[in-house]
Amino acid sequence: YNNILADKVIFVTGSSSGIGEELVRDLVLLGAKVVAVARRITRLEKLKTSLEDATGHILVKKLDVTVEEDVNRVVKEVIAECGHIDILVNNAGVMYFTLVEKYTLADWNAMLDVNVKGVLHCIGNILPTMLQSQRPGHIVNISSNAGVRPFAGLAVYTGTKYFIEGLSGALRQEVSDKNIKVTCIQAGDIKTELLSHSTDKEVVDKFDISGKIPVLTTKEISQSIVFALLQPNHSAVNSILIEPPLAS
Ligand code: NDP
């Protein structure tokens, strides 16, 4: 398996922290050329510097996935610099604990903009380039266990991840005969910066279980993604549900 990713160009959104950052490190170790994007460019530059000898394997770009023109421009820049994109990992995401009755429109819009529209902007701009390159392609969407069952306190977030599951299933049917795989990673609780956006302490205290059970680390999620990416052409890992044992 060692060389499977060696000539691949892999575009990872949300690489400045958490799962994305861990994944970038693992992919670089496997010899891939990684395009790491996020809004916090300073964090991406630090990540690049920390890779020492392997800095040639990482290209960092500032990108807000909610701005379609910027996604379009950055994808064009990457194609000009790297020739093609083989793998897209839609990892950027935000999560706000809140109750529907509180009508927190700004939080709802932020989740829809990043978790739904951001994913569409990236797939919409990158998929045509994958098809044009005629190379095997792979789109990995970071869903959640909230993409397969609902969680109170996370109704809108749950909705965005159900969207990802529906989108991925239908997209898979459209592109599987064109040598493109679509994988959903349905991750359970992991300690990252994701929870830090929620300001409604009462709702977090009532519904968030991550402070009460042993949770996953970003390493298990990164390794799940790598497992899907390392499959030979005749094997497609369509989804992986990975959770702390006590979460289900
Ligand atoms: P983090 O908060 O650590 O990482 C989120 C990443 O998304 C950051 O790199 C952030 O970068 C990026 N991001 C947010 N908004 C934008 C934007 N508008 N444009 C570009 N990038 C953006 O959390 P995680 O690593 O936990 O989250 C990664 C994914 O995993 C998310 O999709 C999340 O829903 C999913 N997930 C997480 C779980 C958990 O328990 N942690 C469980 C299940 C799924 P920046 O701010 O620099 O732009």
Identify the notable features of this structure and list them briefly.
248 residues, alpha/beta, Rossmann fold, 43% helix, binds NADPH dihydro-nicotinamide-adenine-dinucleotide phosphate
Give the name of the CATH superfamily.
NAD(P)-binding Rossmann-like Domain
Q: Given this structure, which CATH class is correct?
A: Alpha Beta
Number of helices: 7
The neighbouring-strand order within the major sheet is 3-2-1-4-5-6-7
Question: What is the element string, with H for helices and E for strands?
Answer: EHEHEHEHEHEHHE
Small molecules bound: NADPH dihydro-nicotinamide-adenine-dinucleotide phosphate
Tell me the total number of β-strands: 7
Q: Can you describe what's shown?
A:
This protein has 248 residues and is α/β, with parallel strands linked by helices. It has one domain: 3-Layer(aba) Sandwich (Rossmann fold). It has seven helices and seven strands. The chain has helices at residues 18-29, 41-50, 68-82, 105-133, 155-175, 201-207, 218-229; strands at residues 9-13, 33-38, 58-62, 87-90, 137-142, 180-187, 239-242. Strands 3-2-1-4-5-6-7 form a seven-stranded parallel sheet, with helices on both faces. β4 (87-90), α4 (105-133) and β5 form a beta-alpha-beta unit. α1 (18-29) crosses α7 (218-229) and α3 (68-82) packs parallel to α4 (105-133). The longest helix has 29 residues, at 105-133. The chain is globular. The two termini are 32 Å apart. The relative contact order is 0.15. The mean pLDDT is 97. The structure holds NADPH dihydro-nicotinamide-adenine-dinucleotide phosphate.
